[in-house]
Amino acid sequence: MASDSGARGTARPAPTHPHPATTGQPTVLSGATVVLPTETVKNGQVAIHGTRITTTAPENAQVIDVTGHYLLPGFVDLHNHGGGGASFTSGSAEDILKGIHTHRLHGTTTLVASTVTGDMDFLTQRAGLLSELAEQGEIAGVHFEGPFISPCRKGAHAENLLRDPHPADVRKLIDAARGRAKMVTLATELPGGLDSVRLLAEHGVIAAIGHTDATYEQTVQAIDAGATVATHLFNAMPPLGHRSPGPITALLEDDRITVELINDGTHLHPAALQLAFHHAGADRVAFITDAMDAAGFGDGRYWLGPLEVEVADGVARLVEDGTIAGSTLTLDRAFKRAVTVDGLSVEDAVTALSANPARLLGMADTIGSLEPGRFADLVLLDSAYDLKGVMRRGEWVVGPQLH
């Protein structure tokens, strides 16, 4: 949905600008608890020169004391449909940039733009627009969630626009994205599903199992064919049963699968999240937002593709039947909830929010950690895990807010 066509939300993000004291000059952030891939360093420091993290900083670098804070790598969101009142499926380029900026204000320094189900001509057109933004470095790529999903588990997708995942149609979308397609969600039990998984794997695109009515055995077949991600595990798939274990069991037990989780307190009970972490382990979990237009914007009426959505108290549901319709989550909230409600360690939460999605995107050499040589993408949190600063590519998006 374009930002001006029906949204009534009022909680607009305040505009922010790069911090003038640090923009464009070497910087050292000193005194924080720094979360690295192999250790957490108390009273540590991170040196930044230009767009990158460096081993050391020049003598003229400005030192900013961030004692009492956490320094984390910038968050990476694999699955995001919009924010700030803007839809990645239907908004203009200007709208999409507003949505991207909204999530940057909440610590997401790398984002994959997700579409919802539409007709093929419309989706190929959107792929072209989103690929341009990927080429400009604004997004990391495109995720097609639909139309190749099960009508039995359609969630907030228009049933009349769904279709089987025939390889020719899947190829049409990835070609339209001009090498910027990162992921396609499929109900792999549908006709053409396994061949489409193989096609995606051959082209270096993530095949994600989701919005599926598959059995356990069918899910195992899809994993063997090359699927590597579970789209928002537990949601839009058959529940786990003791005689019919279904896709959840197959996805949790296989080391080749990374499971997406929406940690907003609405999509998952905390015990379900703990179940996923226990069986998959922190190295196979990726927190996502599955955010729609209302993220960072407010309650009101919105459109998700052709379907009208009512957002009340931060929960998005279809007007027609009350089905949950994405989320209004931002990743800073997902992080705080993981640590303060779900009892995860800071390190495991960072792995799920930064390192794992960076690895899946094939970008672990440039994002997802605070190691030298990576982009200077980082999040500054206070001792209560509230966001106090965001840097992307060496420029402050938020803060730092130290008082």
TrEMBL record:
GO BP field: N-acetylglucosamine catabolic process
Catalytic activity: N-acetyl-D-glucosamine 6-phosphate + H2O = D-glucosamine 6-phosphate + acetate
Keywords, in A-Z order: Carbohydrate metabolism, Hydrolase, Metal-binding
Enzyme class: hydrolase
Binding site for Zn(2+): E145, H211, H232
Cofactor note: Binds 1 divalent metal cation per subunit.
Protein EC: 3.5.1.25
Pfam families hit by this protein: Amidohydro_1
Pathway(s): Amino-sugar metabolism; N-acetylneuraminate degradation; D-fructose 6-phosphate from N-acetylneuraminate: step 4/5
Cleaved signal peptide residues: none
Highest taxon above the source species: Bacteria
Record: residues binding substrate: A156, N235, A236, R243, H267, I324, A325, G326
Cofactor entry: a divalent metal cation
Family recorded in the similarity comment: Belongs to the metallo-dependent hydrolases superfamily. NagA family.
Protein name, per record: N-acetylglucosamine-6-phosphate deacetylase
Organism of derivation: Streptomyces violarus
Lineage: Bacteria, Bacillati, Actinomycetota, Actinomycetes, Kitasatosporales
